[in-house]
Design goal:
The chain is mainly beta and 282 residues long. The chain has one domain: Beta Barrel (Porin), CATH 2.40.160. It is 9% helix and 66% strand. It has two helices and 13 strands, in the order H-E-E-E-E-E-E-E-H-E-E-E-E-E-E. A hairpin with a 2-residue loop joins strand 10 and strand 11.
């Protein structure tokens, strides 16, 4: 081998090594350029609240109003099934923005006792008549219904993901922590009945939410993950419409909520590699 050929080989070695390093670049789940999608199921719990009802002939306030979720598992019936769906992107190593759709439900506890305040004009139309001041009343679903079987929580979340534990060849199994905060809006379909006033499936953009999130993500083979997580936050139903035919009939309330969810997701490594400017690393 001539000295010229030897010199060319020596000078070319760094380029070859660098090219090999790029080709073998490890896939890291929380690195910039990673896209993720998930789908899951949840249970929700709601605090007691002060429910205010405004209608054409009444203004009523129910203190201590309680409701539960509806744990339906029928995944083929989207209007009644509770689920969580999310798509997100790591815009910086460890930091992601994601858009979520949490299909929640809020069903009145039948037979509960509340404190009633306010006024109602006309017992024949509302079932209430006169003025009320801290009067104890039992709610019967035969005469009064307030439920949101389809409470769609659309939220934007900023999260910080940290890879805590790594196992296996090429880190095929990873445990990560996932912490975040979100802001969202509520799109409701409400069922309502008060005396002769009733309507079902009334739609409205009703309020806003603020929440915090904490989860543990179990990652398998760099592409699949299972994540149980806990969320807690604040809901402000500013103006939840009750009757389609009566625009000035609405409810408002403020409450806290707690949600436990388990989601299954996939990771897609879409950042260009190998200097090709168009070649995603899957």
């Amino acid at each position: 081998m001539s000295w010229r050929l030897l010199l060319i080989v020596i000078l070319s070695l760094p380029l070859v090594v660098n090219a090999q390093s790029r080709r073998r670049k490890s896939k890291i789940s929380n690195s910039e350029g990673t896209l993720f999608l998930s789908w899951g199921y949840h249970r929700s719990w709601y605090s007691g609240s002060k429910l205010r009802l405004n209608g054409p002939s009444y203004q009523l306030e129910m203190t201590g109003f309680r409701a539960t979720d509806n744990p339906s598992l029928n995944i083929l019936d989207l209007p009644t099934t509770q689920f969580n769906a999310r798509i997100g992107y790591y815009f910086k190593n460890g930091y992601a923005l994601s858009l979520g759709w949490d299909k929640m439900s809020y069903d009145m506890v039948n037979g509960q006792a509340i404190l009633l305040n306010g006024t109602a004009d006309g017992s024949s139309t509302t079932g209430f008549n006169g003025s009320y001041f801290n009067e104890s009343v039992f709610l019967d679903s035969g005469a009064f219904v307030y439920a949101v079987p389809s409470m769609n929580h659309i939220n934007l979340k900023l999260s910080r993901t940290g890879r805590s534990v790594r196992f296996g060849r090429n880190e095929s199994f990873v445990i990560s922590t996932d912490l975040g905060a979100s802001f969202g809006v509520l799109l409701n379909q409400t069922d309502y009945r008060l005396g002769s006033f009733q309507d079902y499936g009334t739609s409205s953009l009703s309020g806003i939410t603020l929440a915090a999130h904490a989860g543990i993500r179990f990652e398998f083979f760099k592409h699949i993950y299972l994540e149980p997580s806990l969320s807690g936050g604040y809901m402000n139903q500013i103006r939840n419409r009750l009757l389609e035919y009566e625009p000035n009939s609405y409810a408002n309330q403020q409450l806290g909520y707690l949600q436990f969810e388990t989601t299954l997701g996939i990771l897609l490594y879409v950042r260009p590699t190998n200097d090709c400017n168009s070649c995603p690393q899957w």
